[in-house]
Amino acid sequence: MNDLLPPLVSDGQIVASVNGCLGLITLNRPQALNALSLGMVRDITTLLQHWASRPEIQAVAVLGAGREGKPPAFCAGGDIRFFHQAAHAGDASLEDFFTEEYRLNHLIHAYPKPYIALMDGIVMGGGMGISQGAKLRVLSDRSKLAMPETGIGLFPDVGGGYFLAQCPGHVGEWMALTGHAIAAGDAIEWGLGDVYVPAAQWPDLVAALTTRPQPTAEHVVATVMERADLAPASDPKAAAERIDRHFGAASVAEILASLDAAGDDWARDTAQTLRKRSPVMMAVALELVRRGRHLSLAEDLRLERDLVHHSFHLRGGATESETVEGIRALAVDKDHAPRWRPGNVADVDPAEVARFFVSPWAAAEHPLKDLK
């Protein structure tokens, strides 16, 4: 058993165990909503690589540790406080974080054994990155899926340009720009989840996977599927029609103009949300999703690696970065009043947006050059 559990480096932020043929990865940072640290990224990568080579392990499941008396969180994203500190310190591990996280995202999508993501509660940003490549994405009525990066002056990364681009119609653009959270029914309809297990069944599901015999991968999948049910009623087709009416427009400015002209409550609320997001990064996000429809996952991740480098460096450093300012406002000073530059969509310079899409590396030197 011990040789199935390689040494880990995250100081308990990842808990690994084996139950029969099933390797279990528990994100164990509940006080931070299981947000990913660099150590956690490294440990998940180590476990997946080790278990891929071990015939005793036939399937892997990943879940988030719970918080006593509080709603669950699978994973709320990356450790944005670390991003802020590292950017100001010029810490090279900031670059390492994104290179290694995106490699992990690619590994999960290509994983040779069933990888099951138990997406109970909050699943945002980096949490989407370690779940969207799963063979089985399991949701509950507490699941809230979102890519909220434009609210911190970033863009939907961790493969978001790839998996959001595969959503029907212009749902991907809407999720990328607004950061709006969706529930299980919409997620399954729009291709971001596979099965729904009611919250009342969740403790028994976790207990079965962690403590009851799991002799084969088929048995692991059956353990999930025998508890699956129809997701709570919603009307995703009507929502998608409303989204398509506006988010198929050519630019962020035209999307806003379309919403303003509609004048209904949904359009007004959506426009109000967009006006709180970073204008520059909404333009970057829109371009990313639209390019993503013509990219492989590896190509998208290489592009996102370019974009995230520019998010911290394009303007010259941390004090000028839209991302660092967005994190400051949300998570450091918590004044929720980011000073976006520019503050209005109409003032975004298309030339600056275009510079985001120019790689800072020659192809042979790209940190993700070997992804296939």
From TrEMBL:
Chain ranges of the Enoyl-CoA hydratase/isomerase domain? 23-357
Gene3D superfamilies noted in UniProt: 2-enoyl-CoA Hydratase, Chain A, domain 1
Record's keyword terms, sorted: Hydrolase
Against CDD domains, the record matches this protein to: crotonase-like
Q: Which InterPro entries match?
A: ClpP/crotonase-like_dom_sf (IPR029045), ECH_dom (IPR045004), HIBYL-CoA-H (IPR032259)
Q: Which Pfam families match?
A: ECH_2
Keyword Signal in the entry? The reply is no
According to UniProt, the name of this protein is Enoyl-CoA hydratase/isomerase family protein
Q: Which organism is it from?
A: Pelomonas baiyunensis
